[in-house]
What does this fold into?
Amino acid sequence: MTRTGLLATLAATALMAGQAVAADITLRFGHVGNPGSLFEATVNHFAECANGKLGDAAEVQTFGASQLGKDQELLQKLKLGQVQFALPSSVMSSVDDIFGIFEMPYIIKDRDHMRRVQAEMMDTFEAAANANGYTIVGLAENGFRHITNNVRPITVPADLEGVKLRTPNGAWRVKMFQQYGANPTPMAFSDVFTALQTGVIDGQENPYAQIASAKFQEVQKYLSITGHVYTPAYILASKSHFDKLPDDVRAALGECAAETQDFTYEKAAELEVELLQVIKDAGVEVNEADKDAFIEASKPIYDAFAAEVEGGGEMIEKVLGLGSAS
It folds into this structure.
């Protein structure tokens, strides 16, 4: 081959390589989970699965610990196309009141119950997401939530009287803790450790995986096992941006979301045992709350949801009914 021919071949190869790179799709997945959290494990599993299936067609890149923004910022960035995936949980009740069904205390019994709710009612949740510009690619979880604080052990709702308790940015969680007598303060997750450390707030409520990975056990005296709310997490995308992805890319991402849910449920169950011990070993005093007392005190929250959310009463009945299914 002549020198001229060789140069032409190299130029053509470089051009094709450049086109291949340009054709690649970068999908940025932002979340608020810290290293060691269930959120981090979930997102990493999803990315590993997706990148294995997608090959050169697309790449999922992960950004944890609020690097790309807090929950509300991530919801906005999804719509702007600055982030392609996020993993919101409680904050979804601020997107649409329908997601507030998962803010109802003790409405979800266990993960099998959640799967039945998903199978029977996912169309309802997807329609609500679509109406607000999002699509739910799949479900994961945040988990069963418990209360930590520096004032006293919480056994019954009255023990929360006057406790300054951080909650996520969701109206129904605020209403719930107001009903219990606490002083709920909505706050971004990334701000909670410092607020606890400095005494701006007395306590917070989260699953063990979030408590331990955020090291709240270093700045909290008491953990009360309430299990008051189970929060799913949503592998969420902008509907308009997701719909523009090639069919094969969307199919692979959907498959990985389903596989990730299985992984997350297994991982979460393991962490519930391991991380409770981590919290105890840090010197936090642990007590079992009187769940019957909390359930009794929760009735007004159910009544309010039924009255204020269109179809709320029917949703409550359906979800509770699925909890008693065999």
